[in-house]
Amino acid sequence: MFDYRVSCFPVTCRKSHCIYLHKLLSLLQIPRKMMLFFLLMDHMTHETSADIVFLLDGSDEMQESERLILDFVREFVNQLEIGPSKVQVALIQYSAEPTADFRLNTYSLKENVMSHLSNVKLKGGFTLNTGVALDYVKNNVLTTSSGSRAQQGVPQILIILRGRKSEDDVLGPVDRLRKAGIALFSVGVNNTDTLEMEQLAHSLRAEYLIKEKSDFPFVKEQFSSMARDIVFLIDGSDDVRSKFSAIREFVAKMVDSFDLDQGKDKVAVVQYSNNAELSFNLNTYNTRDDALKHVTSLKPKGGRPQYIGAALQFVRDNVFVSTAGGRHHEGAKQILVVLAGGRSRDSPRGPASMLKAAGVVTFAVGSRMSNSAEMQVISSDPNYTYSIPDFVNLPRIQQSLMSHLTQMGVEEETEQGKNLDYFNNLDKHLWLCETRKRCHNMN
After folding, report:
1. Is 239 found in the same domain as 171?
2. Per-residue pLDDT tens for 117-170?
């Protein structure tokens, strides 16, 4: 029997949650479970693409688990839609130093990947330098030359299977992965060091402990149905007229990734300058195609100067409300993305505080002409503030912002979950373990 721990570290966010599973009969029972969490977090679906790197502890200590580890990878890959426009996978082993078995752009057909996996053997070695391996993946595998599609907005995912505690530092490499917008999933096998797992999760607000029976499908069903109301508040003033096409393209790419057709996500767009103007509301469109058609036809409203405070108040009073399609009363996460091209003539502090008090999570993106202090005031968290030289540079932040947004529905629910009925339905199998506190049953 193997004890293992599965930790979900979407390291693009400071706050998240971990999934722990204990004492299953075999590692082979994990892949379908982890797949549920990829679906849950919107990192990947059958309609989207992803770059996935498997990083395996190939040290001598893992030799007795070799078959289970490699079967895990094969089982996982077998469930993916492999292809240059779908999911790409890479396999890296490490002990003292990392070795690439194959990279993201090595194979374009699933049968070739599976054929290679059927012949893989663990490399061996005594020393275990997980930190070195993490940096290697960031600098040599999740790169354009190795097939990474991060610049196209494709999710970058690293799954690490490891045994004992690393002999080098892991916190620095994990932080660098986070800053690069890479999501890390860690599977601990055999002699997993729990302290190191906690160190990796040092910024986590909450952890879930699930004792597996038949809970995962239920958890997935509940979490994947979490709704998001996403509003874009964009600068449409005369000052950004020449750059508005870049703003429009950025919003279109974001909207294209949302789940509007199934009703999970709703989206609205508001422009502002000297006043705020609604382009379309949360309840205007029920399909992604219809919303995209409107977004791609947007033209700047014009006018000056910019009054961001008044625009924030407009969004609070007229957009995040039930009459306009807002679903806060249904438990939907309400998210505001502000794109600012200049300083505000009024103070955004009061309206920003009211939005935060209402539970709205705000991201602020400012160009060089905006006021960085204002952007900090507007955003709900310092990590939710982005500064770019020009709006043509918006693609640089797309992956990071998308990672925050896709995690938002899951992450924020951990704070509200005590009051949700589905936690009670999990009975004794679901526990909430707050950081630095003892675990306690939710019932």
Report:
1. no
2. 988 989 989 898 999 999 999 999 999 999 999 888 888 888 888 777 888 888
Burial pattern 157-189, b for ≥16 Cβ within 10 A else e, equals bbbbbbbbbbebebeebbebbbebbbbbbbbbb
pLDDT, average across residues 292-315: 95
Supply the range of the domain harboring residue 309: 228-411
Cross-strand pairs, 108: none
What's the domain count of the chain? 2
What does the longest C-alpha to C-alpha distance in the chain come to? 69
Q: What is the pLDDT of residues 44-98, one digit of tens each?
A: 444 468 899 999 988 988 887 787 788 778 878 887 889 998 899 999 999 999 9
Determine, yes or no, domain membership for 443.
no
CB of 370 within 8 A of CB of 343? yes
One-letter identity of residue 90: A
- Count of alpha carbons within 13 angstroms of residue 107, beta-carbon side: 19
Extended strands (E) in 96-205: 98-102, 156-162, 182-189
Strand pairing partners for 5?
188
Instruction: Read off the tokens for 19.
Output: 């999934």
Looking at 171, 204, 237, the residue that finishes a domain is: 204
